[in-house]
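Batch job 17 of 40 flagged for manual review because the log was empty.
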Amino acid sequence: MNIELTLIGKPGCHLCEDAELAVDRVLASFLAANPAVAVSMTQQNILDDVELAARYAEQIPVLLINGKVHNYWRIDEERFARALTEIAAEVPNE
């Protein structure tokens, strides 16, 4: 199973830096508890993409899980951890 995360932000954004740290903390615990789950993480900069800037400029940082908005502005670590655990539980063990 693979979970795709996308963190959208921009350089110099303190909330974006906080979000990156929060994601890293949650992922460390989640991956330790779920070694069979692969998580890919992509970061996107709204300054490099006009469409992203138009869509998310007032909401950064934005965290997407499998292409869907999960959180913006501040990452709720408990909610994020629950979401990852729920996604991992949806796929039966092979």
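Reviewer: the log was empty due to a logging misconfiguration, but the result itself is present. The two ends are 10 Å apart (CA to CA). Unflagging and moving on to job 18.
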